[in-house]
Amino acid sequence: MSRLICFLPYTPRSDSEERGYEQWLQDVDNPFFNSRPPVHHYTNWRVAGGPTEAFPYTHFDFLLIEPGKTADDVWTDGPLAEFAANWVKLWGVAPEGDPALNYQCYVAEYVSGDAGAYAPLIEISLDLSSVGEQWRITQNVVGQAQSPGFTRRFISRSDPASNAIIGELVAGPR
What we know:
The chain is of the alpha+beta class. Helices cover about 20% and strands about 35% of the residues. The chain is built from three helices and eight strands. The protein has an eight-stranded antiparallel barrel with strand order 1-3-2-8-5-7-6-4. β6 and β7 (about 150-155) form a beta hairpin. The protein is globular, with a radius of gyration of 15 Å.
């Protein structure tokens, strides 16, 4: 049985921070997603460093799909679909526009490697040759992936010389 993850990079509306976006992620978004049956583990991250020309987003989420479930189980979960549509209305940069203007969503399958011990910092490399947990993108759900896969690795501190995207945990399961 394959391990599947949804990688969701995005940039919320410019006034989101002053409207309490990160607190909303902690109090509403993250607990909701982690309560849904097809979701094994869901986290929200803020981009804290790395090459912004290669990754033009301010946030990203990881949604690990419950073992034995598929990406279709996520998309056909009615409450999840309704919640996502409401997210676009509340926080999306183009609430009435193309969904890809609001967020991207890619399904990836585990290839190999280990992400290390869970930590509040993560390093994302947009290739499959870096050290860490390697994932191959198998489906572009919303938008078009910039690479065929990515590697993720939890870190204790960021390396300024790194070419990777650095994420700081905003919300995770309690």
